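Internal ticket - ligand job 814, pyridoxal-5'-phosphate:
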Amino acid sequence: MTETRTVSTTDFAQQFLDHLVRDLGVSLAESSANDRYLALAHTVRDHLIARWIDDQAAQHETPSKTVHYLSAEYLLGRQLDNGLLAADLAETASGALDSLGVDLDELRSQEVEPGLGNGGLGRLAACFVDSLATIGVPSIGYGIRYEYGIFRQTFIEGQQVEQPDSWLTLGSPWDFPRPELAQTISFGGATEHYDDEGVRRSRWIPAWNVRAVPHDFLVPGYRNERVNTLRLWSAVATQAFDLRIFNSGDYEEAVRAQTYAENISKVLYPEDSTPQGKELRLQQQYFFVAASVHDVIDRLLADGRPLSDLPHLAIFQLNDTHPVIAVPELIRVLTDEHAMEWDAAWAIARRCFAYTCHTLLPEALEVWPVDLLGRLLPRHLEIIYRINEEFLDAVREQFGDDELRIRNMSIIAEHPVRSVRMAYLATVAGSRVNGVAELHSQLLRDKVLHDFSELFPEKFTNVTNGVTPRRFLRLANPGLSGLITEAIGDGWVADLERLRELEPYADDASFRERFAAVKAANKRTLDAVLRERDGVHVGDGHLIDVMVKRLHEYKRQMLKLLHVVTTYEGVISGRVAVSDVVPRTALFGAKAAPGYAMAKRIIHLINAVGSVVNTDPRLEGRLKVVFPANYNVTLAERVIPAADLSEQISLAGKEASGTGNMKFALNGALTIGTDDGANVEIRELVGDDHFFLFGMAEPEVAALESAGYRPGDFYQADAGLRRAIDLIASGAFSGGDRSVFEPVVSNLLYEDRFMVLADYASYIAAQERVDAAYADQDRWNRSAILNVARTGYFSSDRSIRDYLDRIWHAEPLA
Ligand SMILES: *Cc1c(COP(=O)(O)O)cnc(C)c1O
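stdout (structure tokens):
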């Protein structure tokens, strides 16, 4: 390790001015805020580059097993503060800018976050590359540099409208294009089989290709002098391809072809949990994993190592099924391009890949129609068929000719159209298969992949998700961070289990008081942010009750909304005295996939309820609903530190893990939650007294499902529920028009796939316990502090160490 580099405030100021002049071509006096932000970003970057170069040299000198994290999404969030923190430059930068009369906060707010992901899965990948760098694991993250990330959400008359996210237009100071490391990626065409001196071989004759140009983002470790690489691929039309058409004289066609090729990295599919099976999406998947696999093989060969060394030097972690097409790609390269025997290539693949499953919803399991896959990647389809044949032979050997079992386990599904089941391919090929929380991994073994866990019990393992404490505690919550550091030192930032040392402080009245003061200050900050950003404000002295995550029926934003409507209905009907209502602000943040009609109706309904409740004088000061648009990482960093109550209310057995739940607990919010995903582990750690549990557990859900769930029965049986639903149905939130939210109401009454009505009574009772607990502020604060002290387990550093122990069998560099 090199010694820590330091820079004086004066030198930093000079470097900043130099960048302003040299990179942006403006003087300080003439510069825009964006110029100043870019100059600052370049200055910070300079301090990371030397470390980055050293790190790459070190990894080159002593090649060791390298982790290649393959993910179609990275929801990175802003980079500036993260770079300043990692390189310990925050004070220097702020002093330097002060001396120049430049406002650091103004520059911070210039940065458009790279939103190259949809939600939890993409944010997990971003946390993992942070932890890999902080632990010092030789690793590289691979993905796609979408020109447009997740859409920017706005509301027009309460309804979601999507705007393109053009995050690159004002400059992208954090990435380095590496055109000299571009790869050529092919598509389409046909395969040929030929005789090579008595050996049967295959080759792919593709129809078209595209260049994959890497852009390297620096991933600095926290104060450890390490900087890793996040390599995101961008699609560029190939010259050869252009020339052929140009030469044919068809200029328009040439331009069209170029646009076609470059479309591949144009836009992130804004879907969460519901893949649509679109051709462009398969192109994206193959594009980035093929480029990544070739990148790794090129480096191995350049170092003079044989391909048989791959399992010793490379592991590919598949973040969900999106990168699974890397499996047949690696086999194709080994067999067709490097003349390796099938058995040897397959043996290598089986040791190089590991698969993380992220779901339990059947509709979220990716399948690709054989027609489409064969048209785009004909050789890969042949390879998948061969993998499947050999796999099904092995199944027969173990279980006999059990045709039902064989049909159920086949990588190829026959109905409704012949398709490749990507999760099965990943499970068969992967050396390990992990779920993302204990309960989820158990359900994978018992249900979703049950037949596979019988066949390969040793493959299945768990790695509970985590979040990076740097971004989600140290940076997002400077007040609480300062308080923690004062009490126990700053070792917790890179060793989060040390938060345990905070436990005794929960019983220290003066610490509780200071904790409460931090929370109150965070609420004021949030209020200021929301006034400026959305023109809304949170109630003074309110319990801040937050549900922020993608909008999905299984997450059950509807359940929380029914609680709001229940409170409202109680007051306006006169059954509840307004003075008995514990003042609350219900804060929602959620994007809906643009094609997910029910999710969009629910957003509309939340906003509609908000505009009625917020303007009804009968509720004045007691109940507010706020729904800031465009929930993203930057907003999460403001909202979470201000929350009192964290809503984690998915139907048990549906949320694989959740990571939002971890962020809230670490910031001292109490959870109201079901026994689902990582909530189970959070509750075990913080203790039942400091967690508001409600609802059916997974076995009860399964039992109700098989008994035949009738939501109408719950509606009939519960007067409070009936009044809330009737109020929505009456048009009270839609200017008397009953038709607007009729689809939402009907869905609840006649379908309710995620059993909102079945859990309603238990949820309302839990919210009553919340109200009662909140009335005793001292007790509440004690619980909140214990939540912080007991959830250090949920650091993504711990997740990465679990991956190292259970899956990768790799070691951090000394
Ligand atoms: C953490 C995070 C998520 C995931 O939230 P869940 O509650 O686990 O679904 C989604 N979006 C953003 C912006 C996040 O920061």
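Auto-summary: The two ends are 8 Å apart (CA to CA). Residues 8-62+79-112 form one domain.
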